[in-house]
Amino acid sequence: MAFEIFEQQFGDLKELVVQDSATKNRFVVIPELGGIVRQLSLLKDETLFSVLKTPATPHLLTEDSRSASELLFPFASRIPDGKYRFLGKDYELDKNEDGNLNAIHGLVRKKPFEIEEQIIEDQYALIRLSFHLKELKGYPFELQFSVTYKLDAAGTFTLKYEAENKGTSPAPVMFGWHPYFLLGNESADAWKINIPSDEIVAFDYNSIPTGKEPFTVDMPTLLYKKAFDNCFVIRSQNDSAVTQLISENQDVTLNVRQGIGADKFNFLVVYTPPARDCVAIEPLTANVNAFNSGEGLNIVAPGNQVEGTIQVFLT
């Protein structure tokens, strides 16, 4: 059987490795640190690309404030002053962003996840992790949040999230994934990006939405001398849309496919860090500050659940 799952140490952290021994495709997950994917390696022709940029040491990873590869739940991005109003009640979250202005990126970052399932089959292997949210400060709702990571024989990595309302009242829910992608040792200035959108979110000084504007950049566009730190409304004629990061020099394209439609990933953040060594491509189920605007926000009734899927593959 080509697939295997095994444990290894990363400093004081314990990792799970899912690997296809035939291709060396693999991903590495740290359940105790927010269930993050620390490494993802995918084969294109004869080259194995390590496509995720994460901090290089256990200490740097534990202290990371850039949220590299983190799972963002039950909200993603910023909530100004940590305050929101839901079904006629006011709530206040801790202001945990640098600068102490906003609540940012949810409540499960760096929290220990439970390992629920490990499956190895001929054509794929997967692991499923979970975290139970209950009566957290500023979020007095009860949800079972789980994420399934899967690698198949074709070299497709799949992230599927699920959130079930275990409480007695409706709960506001938003999910995002925060990976930084790279392609070999090239600078981002050598890559092109293809963003499936014709509408961009306008931000104020605090990166809070003020409206939307047409996005008219011809795609794909060369990233040379371009800086993105934007949220986009995703458009597609199908039930999914693909953002592409393209290296013509290496003849490889990284594809990030997000399911779209009702309750799915209808927004996307793209960010080019100042170091120009990677690009963040972050599918979101709702707009920034959706806990206040309601735009894209999932309201999950007791006993109900929402789910969505993101896939990463090379062509």
TrEMBL record:
<protein>
    <submittedName>
        <fullName>Aldose 1-epimerase</fullName>
    </submittedName>
</protein>
<dbReference type="Pfam" id="PF01263">
    <property type="entry name" value="Aldose_epim"/>
</dbReference>
<keyword id="KW-0106">Calcium</keyword>
<dbReference type="InterPro" id="IPR011013">
    <property type="entry name" value="Gal_mutarotase_sf_dom"/>
</dbReference>
<dbReference type="InterPro" id="IPR008183">
    <property type="entry name" value="Aldose_1/G6P_1-epimerase"/>
</dbReference>
<dbReference type="GO" id="GO:0033499">
    <property type="term" value="P:galactose catabolic process via UDP-galactose, Leloir pathway"/>
</dbReference>
<comment type="subunit">
    <text>Monomer.</text>
</comment>
<dbReference type="GO" id="GO:0004034">
    <property type="term" value="F:aldose 1-epimerase activity"/>
</dbReference>
<dbReference type="InterPro" id="IPR014718">
    <property type="entry name" value="GH-type_carb-bd"/>
</dbReference>
<dbReference type="GO" id="GO:0030246">
    <property type="term" value="F:carbohydrate binding"/>
</dbReference>
<dbReference type="GO" id="GO:0006006">
    <property type="term" value="P:glucose metabolic process"/>
</dbReference>
